[in-house]
Amino acid sequence: MNAFQATQADVSLKLGYPYVALTALWLYDYILCIPDAVEFIVESRWGLGTFLYLACCHLPFVFLSLNMLEVFPPSAPLPVCAN
């Protein structure tokens, strides 16, 4: 790995750590709110509002997962992962 790749890997990792921290915080908040969400879904009538609620609550998992794969690619070389 040349110096440019090493520098690029360091910058990528430094930008990735805050992203992982925010993702963990969001996931923690999401887990704490599960009982309220279940109660809302069980007691509500199924309509457009319920579907919008479900989409707004669960689509971020898809977006975060795809973005995490972009920030931390599974095909990253081992020296990048070891830092």
Description:
The structure is a single chain. With 83 residues, this protein is mostly helical. Helix content is 83%, strand content 0%. It starts with a helix and ends with a helix. The mean pLDDT is 76.
For the terminal residues, how far apart are their CA atoms?
Answer: 13 Å
Poorly predicted residue ranges: none
Choose one word for the global shape: elongated
Structural class: mainly alpha
- Say how many strands there are: 0
Number of helices: 4
The helical percent reads: over 70%
Strand content: under 5%
Question: Using only CA atoms, what is the Rg?
Answer: 18 Å
What string gives the helices and strands in order? HHHH
Q: How does the major sheet shape up?
A: none
Average of the residue pLDDT scores: 76
Strand and helix map with partners:
Elements lengths: L2 H30 L1 H10 L4 H24 L6 H5 L1
What's this model, at a glance?
By secondary structure, this protein is mostly helical. Helices cover 83% and strands 0% of the residues.
Key features of this structure:
single chain; 83 residues; mainly alpha
